[in-house]
Amino acid sequence: MSTPRFYCLEPLVIGSRYVLPDAAARHASRALRLRVGDDLVLFDGAGGEYVARIAVLDRDQVSVDVMEWCDVECEAPIEVTLVQALQAGEKMDMTVQKAVELGARRIVPVTSQRSTVRLAGERAVRRVEHWRGVAIAACEQCGRNRVPEVSALQSLEQWLGKSPNSGVLRLMLVPGSEQTLASIAPPAPGGKVDVLIGAEGGLAPDEVE
Q1: With contact defined as beta carbons under 8 Å apart, do 101 and 80 qualify?
Q2: Greatest CA span in the chain, whole angstroms?
């Protein structure tokens, strides 16, 4: 069994005692059934990770001693931004999870003409916060220690209206395209790529244009 990993929002300091966030504490004590003396790994999203040991544990609170910092980096050499049109049901959760596991640095959810899900106002804010939680959980599972950004929801038109940063390779996945990924020269390490993907029905013709 691999050492359990937990994301901690607060900066971590070697030699300190830290109380795990409520959700992490419940998962550690109830789901994983960890005990006093068990080791775990903490990361705060700033790079690297910390070895910690459970010092106090009850049903609702877990305190750990932060023991050691490890200079570990797991980021992909190419900075990939996934621009994903909204998908129905749990498909968006799966997309966010797998994008994080595959190394995406940023995820931009957008509304498109063929998106069957319509989100606005407070409902949109809650969904984005949910996807950010999915991204954190994916990092905990796959070993990444820098949490990818999940941007606020915007329309595809809004995203297309913004000028891309210099040197960014922009790709759009379109069924039937004559061009393939194999035909495109890969960017050098440190390069940036934006990948636009439609919803279940793909992008509308005028969106492709």
Answers
A1: no
A2: 60
Enter the pTM of the model.
0.90
- What's residue 135's pLDDT? 96
Confirm if 18 and 10 have CB atoms less than 8 A apart.
yes
Q: Measuring CA to CA, which residue among 27, 23, 71, 19 is closest to residue 49?
A: 71
C-alpha to C-alpha distance for 42 and 12, rounded to whole angstroms: 8
Q: Which residues contact 153 (CB under 8 A, 6 or more apart)?
A: 86, 109, 110, 111, 119, 124, 127, 128
The domain locations on the chain are: 5-70, 79-208
Going by C-alpha positions, the residue among 100, 84, 95 that lies closest to residue 148 is 100
Least confident of 1-15, 40-54, 186-200: 1-15
User: For the structural domain made of 79-208, what CATH number should be given?
Assistant: 3.40.1280.10
**Which letter does DSSP use for residue 163 in this model?**
P
Stated as kind and residue range, the H or E segment containing 7 is: strand 5-7
Alpha-carbon gap, residue 27 to 123, rounded angstroms: 26
Contact 118, 112 (CB under 8 A): no
Protein fold of 5-70: Ribosomal Protein L25; Chain P (2.40.240)
Token pair listed for 72: 């570990």
Chain segment 164-181, per-residue pLDDT in tens: 888 899 999 998 888 998
